[in-house]
Design brief:
Blueprint lengths: L10 E5 L3 H10 L2 E9 L2 E6 L10 E6 L2 E6 L16 H4 L3 E10 L2 E6 L6 E7 L1 H14 L7 H7 L2 E6 L10 H4 L11 E5 L3 E6 L2 H7 L5 E2 L2 H16 L12 H6 L6 H8 L5 H5 L6 E7 L5 E8 L20 H20 L9 H4 L7 H8 L4 H7 L3
Parallel strand pairs: 2-8, 8-9, 9-10
Antiparallel strand pairs: 1-11, 1-12, 2-3, 4-5, 6-7, 6-14, 10-11, 13-14
Helix pairs in contact: 9-11, 13-14
């Protein structure tokens, strides 16, 4: 007997052996599936053909400036929190051809840079990463301007989110309300339990994929277990914002001359690691590649960073942010303050990557606490490790 038609927001139980069927169903709809894989000792996002490609049995240890992936042999596919990779690599590539110019007699003709992008299904998108995709939507899909390259990928995207039951030490998504539970914006949502996934339908496309699979009704005991584990994950995050999120922008922007900016600049290497691993940062520049015969030119968009001195060079000479102090202040105040004014949301989703992948071990939560402290002496004692 066929299962009844699933309504939107319905949650059912999908036995773990059916995960391969989910991947096959996505491929049958011409999706290329990308998901978490273990490569070069870290978690990387890339093509996933079968459940065997996923990081089943792995756990991760993260601290400021430290990352270690360990195999323990447990039975979970999605227990590992993200590594240095972000899903923005698929939507906003590090290097992307924008257009080609080809000499045509006395003039030049513009040639399209690429064909229509493939249909991508992103598997294992954490709630914080899901929030980051929606933040980037606000940047690249504005009402006054829509980036055609980003839009072409986004319109063909299928999102399989996974609730986060094992946050890392550097995670603080609960402080923003961006995790550990996804609240919308996905096609399917998985919550991994011992023997089953709880699968929640988030869209018509998600229902189409899930409906024919061998799911079962989700009993009250499974739903209660999922709620308990999500609450335990939420309670297990020890990092907290020093002030309420709605107070942070004004308070931070009122401390632009705070002495602690000098203190953190002495430790910051201006290496741009934090912006490269951040799932929301969007600074970019352009490069032109010219053929040796001078008849063809390709313009590329490449990732850049506010920590790069050349990003703030001014026409006619000079630099708007010539020091590490100025660049760090720009990054932190944009991420946690002026971003809110630009796009209506913070630029941080609490994934903790900037803490883990900072070679100096700078903890953004400690820096925010120091900069928003009531007394200057508290600030000077509170920053750093």
């Amino acid at each position: 007997m066929a299962n009844p038609l699933l309504p939107l927001n319905a949650t059912v139980a999908l036995p773990k052996p059916r995960l391969g069927d989910l991947l096959a169903a996505l491929r049958a709809r011409d999706y290329t599936v990308h998901g978490p894989t273990v490569r070069d000792g870290v978690l990387r996002y890339g093509p996933v053909i079968s459940p065997d490609d996923l990081p089943r049995g792995y756990v991760v240890r993260q601290q400021p400036g430290r990352y270690r992936l360990e195999y323990t042999g447990h039975g979970d596919y999605f227990a590992v929190t993200p590594g240095p990779d972000t899903w923005k690599r698929d939507l906003f590539p590090p290097r992307q051809a924008l257009f080609h110019l080809r000499r045509n007699g006395e003039g030049w003709e513009v040639v399209a840079a690429a064909e229509k992008p493939p249909r991508l299904a992103l598997l294992g998108v954490r709630p914080c990463e899901l929030a980051a995709i929606h933040v980037q939507d606000r940047v690249f899909l504005r009402q006054d301007f829509s980036d055609p390259h980003y839009r072409a990928v986004r319109e063909r995207l299928f999102l399989v989110a996974v609730n986060c039951l094992h946050p890392a030490e550097t995670c603080f998504c609960a402080a923003w309300g961006t995790g550990p539970e996804a609240t919308g914006g996905y096609d399917l949502l998985l919550t991994e339990l011992d023997d089953v996934f709880l699968a929640t339908v988030g869209s018509e496309a998600g229902r189409e994929v899930l409906q024919p699979l061998g799911w079962e009704p989700a009993g009250a005991s499974l739903l209660d277990l999922a709620r308990q584990r999500l609450e335990a994950a939420r309670a297990g995050m020890t990092r907290r914002l020093p002030v309420a999120p709605d107070r942070l922008p004004d308070l931070l922007l009122s401390r632009l001359e705070h002495p602690h900016w000098e203190a953190v600049a002495l430790r910051c290497l201006s290496c741009a690691n934090c912006t490269q691993v951040c799932p929301t940062c969007f600074c970019w520049g352009v490069e032109d590649a010219i053929a040796l015969n001078g008849d063809e030119v390709t313009r590329f968009r490449v990732w850049d960073s506010c920590f790069s001195p050349q990003l703030s060079y001014l026409a006619g000479g000079g630099n708007a942010r010539p020091t590490v102090k100025a660049r760090y202040r720009q990054w932190l105040t944009h991420k946690f303050a002026s971003w809110q004014r630009q796009f209506g949301v913070p630029g941080c989703v609490g994934c903790g990557r900037c803490i883990t992948w900072c070679p100096a071990g700078i903890d953004v939560i400690a820096e925010l606490a120091a900069l928003t402290a009531d007394r200057e002496e508290d600030a000077l004692q509170g920053g750093g490790r």
